[in-house]
Design goal:
The chain is α+β, with helices and mostly antiparallel strands. It has three domains: 19-165, no CATH class; 170-332, Protein Transport Mog1p, Chain A (3-Layer(aba) Sandwich); 336-472, Protein Transport Mog1p, Chain A, CATH 3.40.1000. The protein is built from eleven helices and 22 strands.
């Protein structure tokens, strides 16, 4: 009898000392997750079927914590759900607990994690549909309309689910059209450094460190005849609040880039998909609906680039699709078709009245918005043309010490799109008449001569991926 009793006691002690499923794992804070697993497991039992914990057809918090509002301050969250700390056990389901994660400085709710004793994916799939999985195998469910997502972090082996807000394409960019919802009412394209900082404040997150450097680069370029713009400090980081796609944290790769005239030319936004082909396709489909039909090009590295244009507003979007992410470059452009419009009075529509033949001072007064002295190599600077990201510059050419300019030159790039180069040739002939091959003409280096109706001479040169034009009197 004693031996039997001793055996029972040993079994009881062993059972009490064993580790329950759900222990460990933790959250970003590193402590509340372990605590939740231990407490939830200790209760045991099966009060409340786990399938009744979740509701809705999209990611939805359980009823007992549904009043927890993301971005609400800590005290308001605790009051709303009846908690007195960032950890709370379920009152309706045994073995279930909640962890509330708050931002470090403002103490605002950014994540709710639910720990259970059983694997959650089968139950959630029945409710919310099949998840999207990244390369790590983590399952994600998204609700673009509300900007809420839920995912099963890999460390928890399917027994924890985290809810957060995220920057959905639909909420960030808005409905069909060229306006960006996240920038509504705020200056962006065409803004100066100061205008951007005033409007966006702390979201221009490296302004304190780099803002002065960008301003200095703009001024230096104006003064240096041989200064190169591509190696200048011309971008600032834009830190928007919410993670995107399968990102766990606030994105760090977004940039705002300024042009040589000191104004924003483009903004780059990256959406991580964790290797999910489905998420990448969703992004492509969204932009196709948002901006219209794309022209897809293959770059020199074999990557795909999708171009969208709105000639009316002179805005353009370029979408790069990679294995791990989708990046959109949204910016200004100046259509080549408008530059070479047949009805425009000049060979290049943006050339001022006195070009060529007038003084530099005349050109500066005729188009002060786009005139850049660039030391002793004056130019007019316009947004990029259709198929390139670098700005379009129209140089004003004069002989040393001459008071007047004898010519102006411009280059139109059609990188990775030779068909666009053919279109430029057609535009030139429509505007100036049939081309005449120059004696320097070769198949790879094609020189042509035109004569405009007003008597100006036009030398045109086509090489790989670009056209170069020089207009003289």
């Amino acid at each position: 009898m004693l031996r039997r009793t001793g055996l029972i006691l040993l079994l009881v002690i062993a059972a009490c000392g064993s580790k329950k499923e759900g222990d460990g794992g933790g959250t970003s804070k590193g402590t509340s997750g372990a605590k939740g697993g231990a407490k939830g497991g200790a209760k045991g039992g099966a009060k409340g079927d786990i399938s009744t914990l979740f509701t809705g057809k999209t990611p939805t918090l359980p009823d007992e914590v549904a009043k927890a509002t993301f971005d609400a301050v800590e005290a308001d969250v605790f009051k709303a759900v009846g908690a007195d700390s960032s950890y709370m056990t379920s009152k309706t389901h045994d073995g279930v607990s909640y962890d509330f994660d708050f931002t470090k400085e403002e103490k605002k709710l950014e994540k709710v994690t639910i720990a259970a004793q059983t694997e959650l994916e089968p139950t959630l799939t029945k409710l919310w549909g099949a998840p999207i999985k990244n390369k790590k195998g983590e399952a994600f469910w998204f609700d673009p309309a509300t900007g809420t997502r839920a995912f099963l972090p890999d460390y928890a082996k399917g027994k924890r689910i985290a809810f957060t807000k995220y920057g959905s394409l639909e909420r960030m960019f808005g409905p069909k059209g060229w306006d960006l919802a996240f920038a509504a009412g705020k200056p962006l394209l065409g803004a100066t450094v100061d205008e951007l900082h005033t409007a966006w404040g702390g979201k221009l997150c490296d302004y304190d460190r780099e803002g002065a450097n960008v301003k200095a680069a703009i001024e230096e370029y104006k003064k240096e005849a041989f200064g190169m713009w591509h190696d200048k400090k011309k971008s600032l980081r834009l830190c928007l609040a919410l993670p995107r796609g399968v990102e766990q944290y606030t994105p760090l790769g977004d940039t705002v880039t300024f042009g040589r005239m000191g104004k924003v030319e483009e903004i780059a936004l990256t959406f991580q998909n964790g290797g999910s082909v489905e998420l990448a396709k969703q992004a492509i489909d969204f932009f196709e609906t948002k901006f219209g039909k794309a022209t897809e090009l293959t770059n020199t590295s074999g990557g795909k680039e999708r171009y969208y244009f709105d000639p009316a507003s002179k805005r353009r979007a370029i979408v790069f699709v990679g294995e791990e992410s989708v990046t959109i470059i949204y910016g200004r452009y100046f259509p080549v078709a408008e530059m070479l419009a047949p009805e425009a009075p000049n060979v290049v529509s943006v050339a001022t009245k006195s070009m060529p033949g007038g003084t530099v001072e005349q050109a500066a007064s005729e188009d002060p918005e786009h005139f850049n002295p660039h030391g002793e190599l004056p130019e007019l600077v316009y947004p990029a043309s259709d198929w390139v990201r670098q700005e379009t510059d129209i140089s004003i050419d004069s002989m040393s010490k001459a008071k007047t300019a004898y010519a102006y030159t411009v280059t139109f790039h059609h990188s990775n799109n030779e068909a666009a180069g053919d279109e430029v040739f057609a535009m030139l002939e429509k505007k100036l008449g049939p081309a005449k091959k120059d004696s320097k003409w070769t198949e790879k280096d094609q020189y042509f001569n035109f004569k405009a109706k007003d008597g100006k001479k036009v030398e045109a040169r086509r090489t790989s991926q670009q056209w170069w034009l020089r207009v003289t009197k």
